[in-house]
Amino acid sequence: MSKKIRAAITGVGGYVPDYVLTNKELEKMVETNDEWIVSRTGIKERRILKGDNQGVSVMGIAAVKELIAKTGVDPKEIDLILFATVTADMTFPASANIVATAVGATNAFSYDISAACSGFLYGLATGASFIESGRYKKVVVIGGDKMSAIIDYTDRSTCIIFGDGAGCVLLEPTEEDAGVMDSILRSDGSGEGYLHMKAGGSRLPASHDTVDKRLHYVYQEGSAVFKFAVTNMAEVAAQVAERNHLTADSIQWLVPHQANKRIIDATASRVGVKDERVMMNIERYGNTTSGTIPLLLWDYEKKLKKGDNLILAAFGGGFTWGAIYVKWAYNPK
Ligand code: UT7
Question: Which of 13, 143, 169, 290 is least enclosed, having the fewest CB within 10 Å?
Answer without folding.
Answer: 13
